[in-house]
Amino acid sequence: MSSTGPGAEVVLRLDRISKSFGALKANDAVSLTLRRGEVVALLGENGAGKTTLMNILFGHYLADDGGVEVFGQPLPPGKPKAALAAGVGMVHQHFTLAGNLTVLENIRLGTDALWSRGHGGARAKVERLSRDFGLAVHPDAKVGRLSVGERQRVEILKALYRDARILILDEPTAVLTPQESEALFATLRKATALGLSVIFISHKLHEVMAIADRCVVLRHGRVVGEVDTHATDKGQLAALMVGGELSLPRAEARVAGEVLMQLDRASTPDRGTVPGLRSVSLALRAGQITGLAGVSGNGQAALAEIIAGLALPASGSISLRGVPVARWTPGEALAQGVARIPEDRHHQGSIADFDLTENAVLESYRSRFSRRGWMNWRAAREFAQGIIRAYDVRCPGPETRIRLLSGGNMQKLILGRAMASDPVVILANQPVRGLDVGAIAYVQSQLIAARDRGAAVILVSEDLDEIIGLSDVIHVMSQGRLSPAFVRGTMTAAELGLWMAGQKFEGADAA
Amino acid sequence: MRLEPVANPSAARRLGLPALALVATLGVAMGLALLAGANPLAVLGQIATGALGSKLAILETLNRATPLIFTGLAVAVAFRAKLWNIGAEAQLYAGAILAVVLGTGVLGSPWVLPVSALAAMLAGAALLLGPVLLKTRLGVDEVVTTLLLNFIMLLFVSYLLEGPMKDPMGMGWPKSPALIPEARLPRIVEGLRLHWGFALAIIAAVVVWVIQTRTTLGFEIRAVGQNPEAARFAGMPVNAVLVKTALLSGGLAALAGWSEVAGLKGHLSSDLSPGFGYTGIIVAMLALLHPLGVIVTAIFVAGIFVGSDAMSRAAGVPTYIADMLMATALLFMVLAILLTRVRVVRG
Ligand SMILES: Nc1ncnc2c1ncn2[C@@H]1O[C@H](COP(=O)(O)OP(=O)(O)OP(=O)(O)O)[C@@H](O)[C@H]1O
Ligand SMILES: [Mg+2]
Predict the structure, then answer these.
(1) B-chain residues within 8 Å CB-CB of A358?
(2) pTM of the predicted model, to two decimals?
(3) Domain range summary for chain A, segments of one domain joined by +
(4) Is domain A10-242 annotated with CATH 3.40.190.170?
(5) In the beta sheet, which residues pair with residue A341?
(6) Highest mean pLDDT among A153-157, A305-309, A393-397, B18-22
(7) If you measure CA to CA, which chain A residue comes closest to B225?
(8) Eight-class DSSP state of B194
(9) Which of A178, A313, B204, B219 has a CA that sits 20 to 30 A from residue B71's CA?
(10) Which residues does a 6 A CB cutoff place in the pocket of ligand 1?
(11) Do the two domains A10-242 and A248-337+423-511 of this chain adopt the same fold?
(12) Architecture of the domain defined by A248-337+423-511
């Protein structure tokens, strides 16, 4: 008997799970099996019901119908403790660690009794796990100080510490750099070699092709396809997900217009280990998409803050249509026609307990939805409904609190809000992070359309394919420095990679 | 045992739990009565009749509710923006002082009432302006500054009543001279002991409710309270919103003192407020910070105090029972609010 592969023992069986939120069927008779040593990718559009299904499996939500079996035993519904005890470990789309505790304390939290003081045995176990699975983190580091990639390692370690045999990873790579994602895949390969099984949720099809044995595709809460990875390709998966053919938009070259926004030798102070800007000069032109490539944490955040109106450079200047700005606030930026799609949609881009209407008018309530201080809620609701329709935001209605939206749908609302103001400059900071292929195509075509209307678009992304596909000119950021502008078609991904690694800068500095 | 968030609390959960909290409070009340050696049911009955049993009792309760509506609104407005104004007591006295300063002869009819009301609000607003500026400019915790101002203000009032504001005809009592008749708030219905302050309080609650739900300022206050980072990113002037919130809150609290002096007492003494500013926090929390709810909870709280006074005279159970009831009601209500949003799961 083989211990892994198609004939291997079934470790997890979901049987016709259904779940509705009001009128919305988030899961509709979903069945799924997972075998020992297998990685199953769960695919589907934003709002297809992936997270909901995993929350049911893990006992966070109660299913309306259907059952879960782990290692042949039925799992009592609605009991995360029982799922844990049965060997299911979950790494959520949004992390759940306590920032003021150390790695070791976080890992033990909720598992070991509060009164067991000694860390000795636990430390040995954590160290062994981190060696076996290639999860390097310092056990005594405060979690609040860790990078996103390191925090994720802690989450996985925590699951392994609880002797998980089944790992559920909900969009683990959405916030990782490509290098960190590679490291995660190495860990997952080690895990499956040791007989663990993994459910992996991602919108990045190349990752799915690289790591998964099997793909299960959800659409509108139903399973619409199940394929072996080696018997399929990205195109077929994408077609299954959106229910039709789909091609990513490609921007054709266009003649750029006048400079709409310009940074001149802008510098900002370092923040801890994150470098500030080092004398960055950048011109954003009408009718042009400027791509900003680079591994995150190299000064992009500082640059984005300046463009968004949150800060002025400590030295150097920012000017709009040739006029240096003196007063620079988010409100001023909006008034000047700068639209912003923030990187952090949960904390900056939206207010969790506000409904979709309130979130939709957050930036424009003064100029468009009020008169002499009186809100016009009727117009606001119509506006929100317009965005919901135009951007296909899947939700029960404009009265839904935004915290209940799936990540991708939340992003669509923020995009619609930004685009509604006919902006002249658009800051798109990781605009397609966490979006499905259909939504990505839509968002990118919107950015191109805005460019064609004469807007200056700056696209910040870690995804080189996205940058190369969309940008008319590309800059690379590394250690707070900005590379020269590379015109469309003059650079390969490999050459950009060298700039991202910082090597080319040394050459340029020396020359 | 763990706490687990409830995504969409049902109506039963949102209304049932606070109701349960009130029932539990009643249970504690009966326990306390038992401890004091009285018949619990009789004590509850006496509190109820003391508060609502006669026309006189009802009017007394509504009179007592008036300053509580104002301070409750002041707290509800500020807490919405997560501006922790613990200083309604000080702002109340600021309003009371202005009622005396302008109501003892400097101004005559018809100007004295509107002008002194406005001046009282400005004084209360000004008193909260300092702490809020310290918060927005220097990051000083407003809980501490507003709380300390309460003590400073109380001492200042004592000084005024012993010195510059002392009534020469007061036979040595530390109280201010009486307001001129034109500076007094008339009764709503002639012959009934209920002054216009109560009607003004109701109007104020409606105005605050309209501000919160219909105006840009209300939208901003809620946004800043829920997520100041997102509010700032969206272009809201967060600090200006906090300052406006403070002005509104301070002004409302000051009206409590102004209406007590102009409507009820007719003069200022240092026992004008038996802690209306602090009780306002309870009133606002019980109302879940809803301005119209404040009217209901203020009357409820006032009823317990008035009723307990009457009960104490009849049954010999100390009136401290009222304070203990308030404290338990608050604790249970905070618990109920928490439990509407999270549930306790075993395992
Ligand atoms: N607690 C809830 N109350 C109401 N609706 C909900 C709730 N949780 C999820 N939904 C809705 O159910 C649908 C499925 O959401 P889910 O989070 O499972 O999507 P997803 O497939 O994980 O999407 P994404 O790829 O964007 O993360 C969405 O339309 C979402 O708005
Ligand atoms: Mg999801």
Answers:
(1) 219, 223
(2) 0.83
(3) 10-242, 248-337+423-511, 345-422
(4) no
(5) A428
(6) A305-309
(7) A351
(8) -
(9) B219
(10) A 21, 24, 26, 44, 46-52, 394-395, 404-409; B 7-8
(11) yes
(12) 3-Layer(aba) Sandwich (3.40)
